[in-house]
Amino acid sequence: MLATVGIIAEFNPLHNGHKKLIDFAKSIGDTVVCAISGNFVQRGDTALFSKQKRAEMALLVGADVVCEMPCLWSMSTAMNFALCGVWQLYSLGVDTIVFGSECGNIDILIKTAEVLMSEDFSKKVNEKIKDGITFAAARNIVAKELGVPDNILEKPNNNLGVEYIIASKRMSLNIKFETLKRFGEEHDSLSDAPNFVSSSFIRQKIISGNIAYTERFMPLAVRGIIDDTMVSDIGRMERTILGILRTKTIEDFRNLPDLSEGIENKLLFSIKVATSLDELYNMIKSKRYTLSRIRRLCLAAALGFDKDFFMKKPPYVRVLGVSKEGEKHLKSLPDKENIIVRVSDIKQLGENAGKVFETECIATDLYGLSFKTPTECGLEYKYKFLKTENVK
């Protein structure tokens, strides 16, 4: 019996490397399930295309089921991002998760996860942090001391894959993992290449207005379905974000997810002075706070996030679209209670589900201001469920 294979991704945007991973998943399974980021992504930015457009792309290149990771998790730490994605895929019947990695060796990545989960590791990391270095730096140093090969945790895809494995182990889920070696340009490279380039390179070109050029790096099935009216650029909503942030109190900042004590004072001061997002980020940035973490904190404050759901399982799994095979798969699942196709069903799942969806609605309403022509409010309620036969 073939596996039900899952992929956790942003598809920001979907390119040839993602297609290769989906093809790999289809070679070892009969159903491919993708959990994709919502309209805000892990690096603390808007997604280049809406979750609906990215779900459409995924279905066109072979995904059978596509669900969304609510922005409370999709714009979060690697640990929280992984927890959400792994749990959602498991809830959708996935027994094998595949991901791209720089090392391409699943045994090394599993061993790394085991090291990171050890008591000795946690103790030594805490000791290093007391010396004033970042968590990420302390993590890398201690991992090497405990036998993890050089550069494993310094590579972003390795690091995220390890977090998937850790999330599965901590939740005691019966999930297998496979990895496909990443090749071509590095994760954040802005260099050109014949076929496989980074998402960062493609985003840069698209935002600068060069969609036609970037389509050579995308699968044939999704070429021609995007235009500049679909492109999100956070720069278009910069003053909106700054305006919202100027209304926030010190208590609002203290309640943010992934906040270290003391940074809230710097946030409050910097927001009162900064006149652009880049200026704000640079004022707050320090050795202990990476740029991505600062961007996430600022956007989380603007979107009204709090720590109530941080490092907790999402209360529902919202499916954005399916193929015919995916539709059959959903019907075959023994437990469908928390799997949502219609937003009207969310209110039946209780208060927590309602709060998560309310936050998602606010995020999408603000996200609409990042387009060339702003979109109206209330689009979460008007979302059109996708089926492959209706996707062009």
Overall 3D form: globular
Strand content: 5-15%
User: Number of helical segments?
Assistant: 18
Class inferred from helices and paired strands:
alpha/beta
Number of separate structural domains: 2
Give me the oligomer status: single chain
Order of helices and strands: EHEEEHEHHEHHHHEHHHHHHHEHEHHE
Structure characterization notes:
With 392 residues, the protein is α/β, with parallel strands linked by helices. The protein folds into 2 domains: 3-102 and 155-225 and 313-365 and 378-390, Rossmann fold (3-Layer(aba) Sandwich), CATH 3.40.50; 235-309, no CATH class. The chain is 45% helix and 12% strand. The chain is built from 18 helices and 10 strands. The strands form 2 sheets. Strands 1, 2, 5, 6, 7, 8, 9 and 10 form an 8-stranded mixed β-sheet that branches. A two-stranded antiparallel sheet has the order 3-4. Helix 4 packs across helix 8, helix 5 crosses helix 8 (156-170) and helix 11 (238-245) packs across helix 15 (291-303). The radius of gyration is 20 Å and the shape is globular. The model has no long low-confidence stretch (mean pLDDT 93).
